[in-house]
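FAQ: What does the model actually see?

It sees only this:
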Amino acid sequence: MDLKQGEFAVKFARKVIESWTRNGKKLKRPKNIPKEFLEKSGVFTTLYTYPERGLRGCIGLPYPYNPLIDAIIESAISVTRDPRFPELSGRELGKIVVEVSILTKPEKIRVIKPEECLKKIKIGTDGLIIRNGVYSGLLLPQVPKEYGWDARTYLEHLCMKAMLPTGAWKYEGTEIFRFCSEIFGEKKPGGPIERLRN
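And it is asked to produce this:
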């Protein structure tokens, strides 16, 4: 995605959030949208407080089941109700910045021995999904870079996100998937959009 498309994604996500928090109305698809937004893709919408940059919500759809434009609508509404935080109010709209992560299709990391997984993970590039039975968890590519984690620590935190023991990434029956993302976000609330990482 180029910056123009990233700007469209972030500005549209903010419009969805504004409509939902102020009026309780779910925005519909715009009539004229870039064709890329009709392709199926996973997406996450993240909110940060401004200017502190504290996390205020992060919710998304990791799998490419829906057209990107529809996935943005769903994730932007859902992030206002992230269960880790109070529901977002209209009064907060001028105090948050919006970030949109557009995901590639998750790819299973295939290994013979679990420890081989450590060499196949690229910190800052790979987002990870873990699955074991009914348990699953996801961390976006920017998370380990922000916290300075190595691959092992990254996997341990991924396990915790899935409510699994920290060593569950080595268990028989555990599956690890990786994906990449293109990330665009506001420099200030409702302000200019920049490409953050990819």
